[in-house]
């Protein structure tokens, strides 16, 4: 997500302590950034995108805080696309279930189902040093 993508010229980066307030702040920032980019809160993809984002940040707070004092959210948009990635420095790469019938249960199953229902993609990528990862979501608008 950090590599330049000319098809996603609108960008914003937010780094927060890996604490419970990170979920609210990441979500509020997404709402503000989307509004600045002309993507209103009534757009059909915004509600599900905010839920997906909240779940991914909450997972970083719940599972990565011991090894990752910060969580970084990358927001990007371009014609017909909204993308975001949630990055932490915990090395575990959770598998994203393939809907329907994912086996991990819980939040990541919801993430996969919502992403697929919107016609988007979800990818987990390890940091080059193996000590962190990003989960990137790309959604059509």
TrEMBL record:
<keyword id="KW-0808">Transferase</keyword>
<dbReference type="GO" id="GO:0004674">
    <property type="term" value="F:protein serine/threonine kinase activity"/>
</dbReference>
<keyword id="KW-0418">Kinase</keyword>
<keyword id="KW-0723">Serine/threonine-protein kinase</keyword>
<protein>
    <submittedName>
        <fullName>ATPase</fullName>
    </submittedName>
</protein>
<dbReference type="InterPro" id="IPR050267">
    <property type="entry name" value="Anti-sigma-factor_SerPK"/>
</dbReference>
<dbReference type="InterPro" id="IPR036890">
    <property type="entry name" value="HATPase_C_sf"/>
</dbReference>
<dbReference type="InterPro" id="IPR003594">
    <property type="entry name" value="HATPase_dom"/>
</dbReference>
<dbReference type="Pfam" id="PF02518">
    <property type="entry name" value="HATPase_c"/>
</dbReference>
<feature type="domain" description="Histidine kinase/HSP90-like ATPase">
    <location>
        <begin position="51"/>
        <end position="141"/>
    </location>
</feature>
